[in-house]
């Protein structure tokens, strides 16, 4: 089932997600619905707060990035078919050089800006079967995971912009929260009573 994506301005996007256990109601269906919702919106990641649930759950599928012609063969292989559910994730450390990459977000449509992040992360998480993993990711893969991880910490990519950039996009963000934007996927706007 395709769920509405929560738009910028909704308080749920600012909540720190709660940990869940394997008895979380309808978890398998929830994850399946999140995949369907993400693919319908042409996303590469989706976090539970973006569908209105303040829990520590996000999904990532970086396959679309594997088509980038600027990537090495190894980078393409790493991104191709990387599909993972992250439950109760905690970033243990971020290391390496800061690098900028143009990011966007399904909750903030039509706003894309360069965001600086560290190159490498070490993250502990559980998969959909609640098996625990501690892994290190770098490059574009780390970037996508960091972006989604921020969502379960109540952080948006726009928070990482300079004060000048924030001022420049303030009006666009206000319009998004009021639903004054055309999108080709279902959204729920805080300024409107019903999603569209």
Describe this structure in words.
The chain has 196 residues and is an alpha+beta fold. It has one domain: Peptide deformylase (Peptide Deformylase, Alpha-Beta Complex), CATH 3.90.45.10. Strand 4 and strand 5 form a beta hairpin.
Overview in brief:
The chain is an alpha+beta fold. 26% of the residues lie in helices and 31% in strands.
Keywords:
196 residues, alpha+beta, Peptide Deformylase, 4 helices, 7 strands, 31% strand, globular
Write the SSE topology.
Layout: E1 5-6, H1 27-40, E2 45-47, E3 57-61, H2 73-79, E4 83-105, E5 108-126, E6 132-138, H3 139-152, H4 163-177, E7 187-188
What is the CATH third-level topology name? Peptide Deformylase
CATH architectural grouping: Alpha-Beta Complex
State the CATH superfamily name: Peptide deformylase
Which secondary-structure class do the elements indicate?
alpha+beta
Order of helices and strands: EHEEHEEEHHE
Computed CA radius of gyration, to the nearest angstrom = 16 Å
Q: What share of residues are in beta strands?
A: 25-35%
Identify the overall geometry. Answer: globular
């Amino acid at each position: 089932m395709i769920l509405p994506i929560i738009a910028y301005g909704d308080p749920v996007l600012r909540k720190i997600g709660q940990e869940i256990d394997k008895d979380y109601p309808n978890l398998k269906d929830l994850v399946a619905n999140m995949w369907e919702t993400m693919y319908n919106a042409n996303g590469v990641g989706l976090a539970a707060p973006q569908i209105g649930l303040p829990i520590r759950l996000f999904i990532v599928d970086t396959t679309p990035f594997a088509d980038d012609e600027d990537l090495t063969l190894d980078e393409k292989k790493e991104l191709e078919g990387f599909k993972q559910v992250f439950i109760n994730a905690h970033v243990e450390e971020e290391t390496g050089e800061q690098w900028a990459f143009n990011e966007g977000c399904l909750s903030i449509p039509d706003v894309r800006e360069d965001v600086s992040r560290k190159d490498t992360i070490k993250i502990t998480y559980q998969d959909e079967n609640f098996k625990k993993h501690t892994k290190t990711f770098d490059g574009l893969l780390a970037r996508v995971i960091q972006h989604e991880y921020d969502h379960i910490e109540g952080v948006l990519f726009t928070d990482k912009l300079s004060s000048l950039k924030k001022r420049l996009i303030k009006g666009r963000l206000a319009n998004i929260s009021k639903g004054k934007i055309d999108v080709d996927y279902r959204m729920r706007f805080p300024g409107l009573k019903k999603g569209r």
